[in-house]
Amino acid sequence: MQNNILVINCGSSSLKYSLMNPVNGQLILSGLAECLLTEEAVITIKHQEKKISTSLIAPFDHEVAIQFLVDYLTQHQLKETVSAIGHRVVHGGEKYSQPTLIDEKVKSSIEQLSKLAPLHNPANLQGIQAAEKAFAQTPQVAIFDTAFHQTMPKRSYLYGLPYHFYQDHGIRKYGFHGTSHYFVCKEAATILNKPMEQCNIISAHLGNGCSVTAVKQGKSVDTSLGLTPLEGVMMGTRSGDIDAGVIFHLVDQLGYSLEDVNTILNKKSGLLGVSQLSNDCRTIEEAASKGNEQAKLALDIFSYRIAKSIASFSCNFTSLDGLIFTGGIGENSLLIRSLILSQLTLLNFHEDKLANETMRFGKQGNIAKIDSTPCWVIPTNEEWVIAEQTYQQLNQEQ
Ligand code: ADP
To answer: Cα–Cα distance between 314 and 307 in angstroms, integer?
Structure first.
């Protein structure tokens, strides 16, 4: 097999990768380099049921990590099977609604879009540059997290702000988690046995970051994340929607700097901020089960805000094929799923308790009662979407 795709998802201090068969989604090898740019930098490779972890050498950067991976692939006769590299790129702005073959112009656009995603796009670019060095002759394709949401109508993506902010500065809702919402909706279409273009679905990606998306006739028509991944439902460490006036109050009345507020809203809020314990849903659920009131409150706010977002998106539809839960929490937390569904009975969602207990740890299926609107748990597989779309893009170019 000479048509494997290397999928790279680069963060500022991490690099996730997988080598995949793009046709059947077979995972050949995967792993993660963490703590990059520090002396603790380490790379883990999972291959053939074995997992090896190795410390990286100076300068401990993305390039060193990719070079280590390339050496491993070469030693195991896998490098020659890589036909292309697919990069997850967080922000594609309005320019990119499709997978795109990377050239100098595309790289410069990704750099310009860093204004809209300062934490993500520069890291994505670093991954692209490091991969280009190591795989000089191999085509590289960018898959944008915002792309799936480019079908949203103006009424969904525009804020109630003076219009020139959109016209002159691109200030609008872009949405994220696009590859995940696309993948799970495609899976739901397979379950429904009809083309995705005929499916009306609300999809809830609940991980550390969380988003809800309305998919009408196969296209994203609204999503909860916005210009940045701060809008929408409450998340692990992000507040989600708040009155923007809170920011002025924190700065003007309480003396916080804008940098402080940025850190508070992005890193100290959400499940972590309310529970005062952790951003990890498992830890909070455990504490709540032992009677911790802050933990109970965090779960209560979290699930209510997600239910409210799902209910609000229902106004896009006259009929709904179903709801999807995905992401670490959506795929595993029967408590959160149960709390959400119990607040959506008006939309005819009724939990099947036994099914809800069963659909965890990678199991896919409907957790709603037989006469309820379906609610599927569908494990996401963003890597496969990136591999598949990279492969398709390549065949299109040839
Ligand atoms: P990321 O957005 O970083 O990719 P994930 O999609 O892996 O994150 O989701 C991480 C979240 O999933 C964490 O809050 C974690 O506690 C939660 N999670 C994972 N397994 C379970 C479980 N069995 N029960 C409840 N929550 C879980």
So the answer is: 11
Nearest-CA residue for ligand 1 atom 4 is 207
CA of 299 to the centre of ligand 1 (A): 14
Q: Which of 275, 333, 378 to mutate to test the pocket of ligand 1 (most atoms within 8 A of CB)?
A: 333
- Phi, psi values for residue 14, rounded to 5°: -140, 165
CB-CB contact of 16 with 6 (8 Å): no
Q: What is the pLDDT of residues 124-176, one digit of tens each?
A: 999 999 999 999 999 999 999 999 999 999 999 999 999 999 999 999 999 99
Phi, psi of 221 (to 5 degrees): -115, -15
- Rounded distance between C-alpha atoms, residue 201 and residue 77, angstroms: 43
Torsion angles phi and psi, residue 232, rounded to 5: 100, -140
Give the DSSP letter string of 289-352: HTT-HHHHHHHHHHHHHHHHHHHHHGGG-SS--EEEEEHHHHHH-HHHHHHHHHT-GGGT--B-
In 50-106, at which residue ranges do the beta strands (DSSP E only) sit?
50-55, 82-89, 100-101
Query: CA 212 to CA 229: how far, in whole Å?
Result: 12
